[in-house]
């Protein structure tokens, strides 16, 4: 759909409170292709800079070779971003 308009899509997923079984938020954001090519770099940098120094979990989980269900421990809130065929990143939200 967006390819015919020369655009890329970035998919962002936020799952904040799995213990209360609240639903996740999934967003699809169309970007011009030149911005879409740079999006993985920007998101990885932002995720690396956002967390506390003494975090218990990895800051960035690479999703290029695994699914979000196998990358983030069950029951933890998380944020993930996916770049289509390029894979994506996940981050466990600790506070």
**Termini Cα gap:** 37 Å
**Largest sheet report:** 5 strands, antiparallel
Radius of gyration: 14 Å
| Major sheet strand order | 2-1-4-5-3
Q: What series of H and E elements makes up the topology?
A: EEHEHEE
How many separate structural domains?
1
Q: Mean of the pLDDT scores?
A: 83
Secondary-structure-based class equals alpha+beta
**Roughly what percent helix?**
10-25%
Q: Count of DSSP E strands?
A: 5
Q: Given the C-alpha coordinates, what overall shape results?
A: globular
**Residue fraction in strands:** 25-35%
How many helices in DSSP terms? Answer: 2
Ranges where pLDDT stays below 50 over 5 or more residues in a row are none
Domain Cwf19-like C-terminal: 1-44
Organism: Hucho hucho
Family: Belongs to the CWF19 family.
Protein name: Cwf19-like C-terminal domain-containing protein
Describe the structure.
The protein is an alpha+beta fold and 95 residues long. The protein has one domain. It has two helices and five strands. Strands 2-1-4-5-3 form a five-stranded antiparallel beta sheet, covered by helices on one side. A hairpin with a 5-residue loop joins strand 4 (78-82) and strand 5 (88-92). The model has no long low-confidence stretch (mean pLDDT 83).
Concise structural overview:
The chain has 95 residues and is α+β, with helices and mostly antiparallel strands. The protein contains 2 helices and 5 strands; from the N terminus they run E-E-H-E-H-E-E. It is globular.
